[in-house]
Design a protein that fits this description.
The chain has 2 domains: about 80 residues, no CATH class; about 90 residues, Fe-S cluster assembly (FSCA) (GMP Synthetase, Chain A, domain 3, 2-Layer Sandwich). It starts with 12 loop residues before the first helix and ends with a strand. It is α+β, with helices and mostly antiparallel strands. It contains 7 helices and 4 strands; from the N terminus they run αααααββααββ. Strand 1 and strand 2 form a beta hairpin. The longest helix is centred in the first third of the chain and has 29 residues. Helix content is about 60%, strand content about 15%. A 4-stranded mixed β-sheet has the order 1-2-3-4.
Length: about 190
């Protein structure tokens, strides 16, 4: 029997890992099936199959949109939706259909708040500088910003949290503080 591990916010980290793995498995399966369709020898059959997939996606999107419209008509429904979008799978599906209720900035700020306890254990913090056309600019401050492993810390903690909360991010650019004042090093994460 595997023991659950709680992270600094008291959330079951094992469940989160399992959910992310499950999402990846489903996503990879969909990508493989689409690739098989793209390589199908019969162009007419391929066109029909791709149209079928697109129709199913549009049907699901329309149903989700109607469901959200009905849910948010009450304060309890609004709270339920807010709780539901904390689940990465639900949030990703809503993003896929253009239905996520939170703008990218809200999702990025929420993800940064989740990473702060970890960064603070290493004497650091992170600031959001800007978001422009999907490019997120950050500044890593404190001990984390000047230590040699800051880019590793950023990549493992911040980048994962940001991409989970906002997979529509095009790029993350982080300025890290160095030992000398008024100098910065850019780290581009892809």
């Amino acid at each position: 029997m595997m023991a659950a591990s709680l992270n600094s916010t008291g959330v079951d980290a094992t469940a989160g890992i399992v959910e992310k793995r499950e999402f990846r498995v489903h996503t990879e399966r969909v990508e493989k099936l689409v690739a098989r369709l793209d390589n199908a020898g019969d162009p007419e059959l391929r066109a029909v199959a791709l149209e079928l997939v697109q129709s199913v996606i549009e049907l699901h999107g329309a149903a989700l949109e109607r469901m959200i419209e009905n849910i948010v008509q009450t304060p309890a429904g609004e709270r339920a939706l807010e709780e539901a979008i904390e689940d990465d799978l639900i949030a990703s599906v809503l993003l896929l259909h253009g239905l996520h209720p939170d703008p990218i900035e809200t999702r990025v700020l929420r993800a940064l708040e989740k990473t702060r306890p970890y960064l603070r254990t290493h004497g650091g913090d992170v600031e959001l500088l800007s978001i422009d056309q999907g490019v997120v600019r950050l500044k890593l401050v404190g001990s984390c910003g000047s230590c040699p492993s800051s880019s590793v810390t950023l990549k493992s903690a911040v980048e994962d949290a940001l991409y989970a909360a906002a997979p529509d991010i095009a790029e993350i650019i982080a300025e890290t503080a160095t030992a000398e004042p008024n100098s910065a090093k850019l780290v581009v994460l892809k």
